[in-house]
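Exercise 7 asks you to align residues with tokens for two separate proteins.
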Amino acid sequence: MTAVTAHIADGVAAIPAADWDACAGADNPFLSHAFLSIVEQSGSATPRTGWQPIPIVIDGADGRPVAIAPAYAKSHSQGEYVFDHGWADAWERAGGSYYPKLQIAAPFTPVPGPRLLLRDPAQAAPLLAAIEAITNRHGLSSAHATFIAPDQVPLFEAAGWLIRTGTQFHWRNEGYGSFDDFLGALASRKRKAIRKERAAAVEGLTIRHVSGPDISEADWDAFWVFYQDTGARKWGKPYLTRPFFTLLGQTMADRVLLILAERDGVPIAGALNLIGADTLYGRYWGCTEDVPFLHFELCYYQAIDAAIARGLTTVEAGAQGEHKLARGYVPVTTWSAHYIPDRNFRRAIADFLERERESVVSDQEYLAELTPFKKAGA
């Protein structure tokens, strides 16, 4: 067997964009060189913020990467959306240092996607071995790959990583030609409730969809205010910096859909989406005026409108949120994988994950009964 050598790059921006994207593919915008380098260059994911970029790379015979893990040395557990604070507390109480840990992820982004970026699929196992070796060599408590694409879960299982499940709510396009077609799939009472919500949300407002070069710095200024308000209330401190949004507009505007609600020409709320190959990804929302149902309108219903218009198959509207059920978003399983070198710590986490998985399955079965779609035979 030929020996494989991996190395740590000095950030995503240190790797040529064409080489990175040859491994990452073009489907998921959050794994693109453009997005991940913007997160670095804007000061959002840096050692100072607790996200030190350390991509793990295996080069091929041609000297170009054949496998990359988008890795970060983390000094906390913020911005991950797969919560391990209890694990950290237990390890610290036992006398260990949980941080820094190794995180394989798209920062601040609970979007499923590949976490092993492979130009050569045969390099999956060597890349996982490299991640483990780095974790062991540096005495790290653990390595975590969060929001793994379903087709990569078996790769982590085969390597012996512990698998964790969770739940998100996604909207599926069943070939709808319009929002009314989608409503036609719902029970009558649910259809009426959504129509009533939408009418109330937009009364006196203008909804504007902007993408590509049509997004102005004034639009980003307005959205930055919205983002700060929501971030301050949810997390205490927003993760992304103001330059992030300018760079996003300069570099990835064709993959951005900004949905703004305006009153008398002045933006009062907005939702930011990124456009993938077959999915619309809802990311951030905020407002300066509290309008009933406007959050649902901009983040869920307008996203459905946009997905149908673009022929996209899915809307992913972020983490958690059982309130999405009534709006036609259904529960789906998410996966993460965890490498725990310490045998006793691993055993304790494995026991916890087994119990948690049973709860996730039970919850999803219950939630599936609450969807607004017509029941068979109705």
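Second protein for Exercise 7:
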Amino acid sequence: MQNTTQDVHDILDSTRKTKIWAIGGGKGGVGKSLVTANLSICLALMGYKVVTIDLDLGGANLHTCLGMPIPERTLSDYLTKKVRDLSEVVTQTPIPNLSIISGAQDDVGIANLKQMQKAKIISKVTSLDADYVLFDLGAGTTFNTLDFFISADQGILTALPEPTSIENTYRFIKSIYHRKLNMVEDLLEVGPLIDQAMNAKISQNSTPADLISRVIEINPEIGHKLKMEIERLSPKLIINQVRTQADIDIGFSMKIICRKYFGINLDYVGFLDYDATVWQSVKRRKPLLMEFPNSALVNNFDKIVHRLLNIS
């Protein structure tokens, strides 16, 4: 079944207009919905057509961050076949160029999507009338969350400068690494090679990056293909609620550790200052960037979006 997601990823890799960004992280409370909402607003204000999808299928709240009531139609209407086309559950927000597909608000087992439902969402997303589609992912490391993250053109991680959040972010990265490895095993039929490498005498401190190196030693051609597939992950990192330079520097440290341990490039795209206006905007049910245009976060988000778009 893992091939289904890999095939979908290959479909999305072919030339197409719509780009997908997925925003994930460790546990809840790190600001994923806040980041998704305001990245969406930034892109919309730049003139891009944006659809943002709440894939936190157990506790959808993205509409609140965009200053909206719960839309009449949600993703569950599509998954339960009340509507036939994904575009029928798209709701326009008060912000020009920005629409939302709200997550499921009912408990009908939607939080545990079947593989085919997941593949269907991912494949249909590209038919939406949008330049960018942003996924607001649920907390944790369920296969749903990991597969949506891996399927995106850009996977963006949000973390707080706190030990538990950093630990959870590493756990998330480790989970997407192993999920990707499983997909590649099926794709390249390298399972036996990985087993052989794993069974070789390994030091106690060996890393996932060492595993790839051992596969390369056994079979250079397949080993290098495996390495290239893993390097395609290249997740982005945003540190939220920074108060000090030490908080900012955590992102650089995490980048170094990910390169050394996993052999992947964690791209630190920026930070968000701690700002009390965040909870005020949530309380008022108004989008942060629209309600507090003079907040330091406006500049933070502007820099991050430019970095994500590779605009200097």
